[in-house]
Specification:
Layout (H helix, E strand, L loop, with lengths): L4 H7 L5 H17 L4 E3 L3 E3 L5 H6 L4 H10 L14 E3 L9 H4 L3 H16 L24 E2 L2 H11 L8 H10 L1 E3 L13 E5 L6 H15 L4 E4 L7 H14 L17 H4 L7 E5 L1 H11 L10 E4 L6 H11 L9 E6 L1 H9 L2 H8 L2 E4 L3 H4 L8 E4 L2 H11 L2 E4 L2 H10 L8
Parallel strand pairs: 2-3, 2-4, 6-7, 6-8, 9-10, 9-12, 10-11, 12-13
Antiparallel strand pairs: 1-5
Helix pairs in contact: 2-8, 7-10, 9-10, 9-12, 10-17, 13-15
Bound molecules: FE3-S4 cluster (F3S).
């Protein structure tokens, strides 16, 4: 691999042992992928969470723990301040809600010490899978190194930033060095469309975008769909749901909606002048199929858990939920959790939404989610959600049934305790 002078200096150990190990890791990783060089990055997102078992195993020594977990090193490395602007994605708990989450004092102390360690190394404690909702909005062409599939597909496609879906080790090494291998979505040729999707039905609102995304992920897998024929302009939160759904049923990390997403104005541009590998359609039959697939695990209509906020909710989404629940009350025995970044939770507190949610009997939760924290109200059997991603993953992860529908369907099930959602 061709190295620049500053990369060579790190490799020679002139910036300390930890950066040396980090750049070695990136060179090995990049070489295995066929990258011929590294590229500068000043925007990295990763997960550096010490779970309870790891925290105990390493006696609370985060340097030792993250050396092994995030740099694949048996040697204990001391972590210097990160070089790249770096942010923490979600964690495994909201420290303000320990009791509800079934966490004890030891978990709380572990969380706080983890937080202190992250702050000491200069990692921004955004603690969300949607950093782009709270100030980290990369621009078109910016080279990033992010983990988290829903965030990766969003910034590649909607914003036109450039990132592969990193793992723990490559993201941590990128934080420490300000470098990432130059391959995959960093290069022009790997961003071109492969599959043309002709949309022949109305797609309007977040649930419909979730269905479209879920269908596309199923049929294209890890390829790059180009979506043509959508008649209405989606809002940011529609695209947030859409991308998360494509990355759940498939492994989509990039898509184009010419004229709307960042890279291409036309279908021709999205394919780089080449012919699509496949042309597929999305009409009423495909829409129905996606809905049925997402509701395959729902049999029992007695709902006891309603969940919003995967990916983490924006203030607009919280506003919509509050409009539906204000002045009403959740049914006894049903739990409602709304997940959002902490700074949006603070905003919701300031503008009265947190009170509306509380008066309804719901919980506004930050920093985490059921899938990442393995969290759920005790005894949950049947969940309702407007998130295709959670409807896809949680049943198998947590052994529950799930219903997928509109925000209004889910709110209705919180009020009545019954699922009455239908595809209209
Ligand atoms: Fe975010 Fe958790 Fe969903 S990390 S995308 S809320 S599974």
């Amino acid at each position: 691999m061709k190295l620049t002078d500053d990369e060579r200096a790190m490799l020679d150990g002139r910036e300390g042992r930890t950066r040396q190990k980090a750049i070695e890791l990136l060179i090995n990783y990049g070489t295995a992928l066929g990258a011929e060089s590294l590229v500068d990055t000043n925007n990295v997102g990763g997960y550096m969470i010490a779970d309870r078992a790891g925290y105990q195993q390493f006696g609370g020594d985060f340097d030792a723990l993250f050396s092994q977990m995030c740099l694949d090193s048996e040697e204990r490395l001391e972590f210097p301040k990160v070089k790249a602007f770096s942010c923490q994605f979600e964690t495994d708990m909201d420290p303000e809600l320990c009791e509800i989450e079934g966490k004890d004092d030891e978990d709380y102390k572990r969380f706080k010490k983890n937080e202190e360690w992250l702050a000491k190394t200069g990692i921004q404690l955004m603690c969300t899978c949607t950093p782009y909702l709270v100030g980290n909005v990369p621009v078109k062409g910016e080279h990033c190194a992010w983990m988290e599939s829903s965030a990766v597909v969003y910034i590649n496609s909607v914003l036109g930033a450039r990132t592969n879906c990193e793992g723990n080790a490559s993201a941590t090494a990128a934080m420490l060095t300000g470098k990432t291998p130059y391959w995959g979505f960093h290069t022009d040729e790997h961003r071109l469309g492969t599959h043309l999707i002709n949309v022949e039905t109305d797609v309007r609102g977040s649930m419909e975008w979730g269905l479209l995304g879920y269908y596309i992920g199923k049929v294209v897998g890890e390829k790059i769909p180009v979506i043509y024929g959508v008649k209405t302009t989606p809002i940011r939160d529609d695209l947030k749901q859409f991308g998360a759904a494509t990355a759940s049923s498939g492994g989509v990390e990039m898509y184009h909606i010419p004229g709307i997403t960042a890279d291409a104005h036309t279908v021709e541009e999205a394919f780089g002048g080449k012919k699509p590998l496949y042309s597929l359609k999305y009409g009423p039959v495909e829409r129905k199929y996606a809905y049925e697939q997402l509701n395959l695990i729902g049999g029992n209509t007695d709902v006891d858990f309603v969940m919003f906020g995967c990916p983490h909710n924006s203030i607009q989404e919280i506003r919509e939920i509050c409009g539906l629940i204000e002045g009403k009350r959740i049914k006894d025995g049903v739990n409602l959790w709304i997940l959002t970044p902490r700074s949006i939770k603070d905003l919701a507190n300031r503008n009265g939404y947190a009170k509306i949610i509380n008066d309804f009997g719901g919980i506004l939760m930050a920093d985490t989610c059921p899938a990442l924290g393995r969290l759920m109200p005790k005894g949950t059997k049947v969940m309702a959600t407007n998130s295709a991603k959670q409807a896809h993953y949680l049943p198998s992860m947590m052994g529950i049934e799930a219903w997928y529908g509109t925000t209004a369907d889910c709110v209705n099930s919180a009020i009545t305790g019954r699922w009455e959602g239908k595809l209209k």
